[in-house]
Each structure stands twice: as structure tokens, then as C-alpha cells.
Amino acid sequence: MFLGPPGVRKTHLSISLGYKAVEQGYKVSFVTIDNLMHVLKTQEISRKSKGKMNRILSSSLVIIDELGYLLITREEANLFFQLISVLHEQASIIITSNKGLEDWTELLGNPALTTGITYRCELFSMSGKSYRLEHRKSLF
Known about the structure:
By secondary structure, the protein is of the alpha/beta class. The protein contains seven helices and five strands.
């Protein structure tokens, strides 16, 4: 898990690792959390979502980006937990989040879900100057 404020290159680092995995012959899926929630909720009725879910489930590395930017409903948190539980034994997972781990219980709405998702993970707390804010100044 790459945790830190916006603009410290969490997504950049996760994509770089995904790119290296592809170069090594691994199958990689990248999905933002809002797109993932759409896929999880519509996979039973949408052929496109079903296909995306099959690609995610057959990947060696799954990158889930932007957890914490948008609110997650209780139903979405449960779907997310179920997916992580399935992927846990068959794939590596990278999650990027602008929330600290201490905020995840509130984010997911359930301490048991938070523990279930994070109990065997490596945490990388990222900090530094925001790349976004640094370049935003030069635009204005």
C-alpha cells in the first residue's frame, strides 16, 4: 500500500512497478477505485464489466488507485473486501490511498473489513512536496 497526500507520486510509482511486471511477463490490471466499484456492482448485468472482472481476477498484479478520494458505501466496502479476499491468495495487490491507515476504518465503515484488507500488507507512507501543487503554481 502506498499511502500519502495527493501529488507525492503514489500512482506514478504503482504504474512503474506494473510496467516492470509486464516487462517480466506478468499480467497486470490497473483500475481506479471508482471504476472498480462500477465493475463490481454491474458485473452480473454488463458483459463489459464481467470481462473487466475476469481480467482483474486473472492478473498476477492488480493495482487499485485512489482509495479514499471518494466516499464508499457499506455495500461497496463489502464488495471491495470480497474482491481483496479472492485476490489475496492468487495475486499481488497495490493499493494507493490519500488516507492514512488510521482513517481506513471510517472510510470502509467497519474495523473488521479494514483488518481483513490490511493484515498482510506492506505499508509505504509517502511524503514530500506535492508534484501537483508544485506545477500548479507555474500554471497560474
